[in-house]
Specification:
The protein contains two helices and four strands; from the N terminus they run E-H-E-E-H-E. A four-stranded antiparallel sheet has the order 2-3-1-4. The model has no long low-confidence stretch (mean pLDDT about 95).
Length: about 80
């Protein structure tokens, strides 16, 4: 089952909303508000690579308040 860590930069002041919206998404196992270069980290796991891509590229990047993402796909 493909898995990825998604690092998210959110618009200032929208971090809490972004975490809640991301947590509610299909295939998102966990999401946290963090301090540092990124504002939110999410763990996404899907039945196949196409669904993983769709969750991250199509659904997650459409969430209002998300400015940018950095995705790290787990290879082993």
């Amino acid at each position: 089952m493909p898995k990825a860590f998604v690092l998210i930069n959110a618009e200032t002041g929208s971090e809490k909303d972004v975490v809640e919206k991301v947590k509610a998404m299909k295939n998102v196992e966990e999401a946290y508000f963090v301090f540092g270069v990124y504002d939110v980290i999410a763990i996404v796991k899907a039945p196949n690579i196409d669904e993983l891509r769709n969750t991250i590229h199509t659904a997650m990047r459409q969430v209002k308040g998300i400015r940018s993402t950095c995705t790290m796909v787990v290879i082993k």
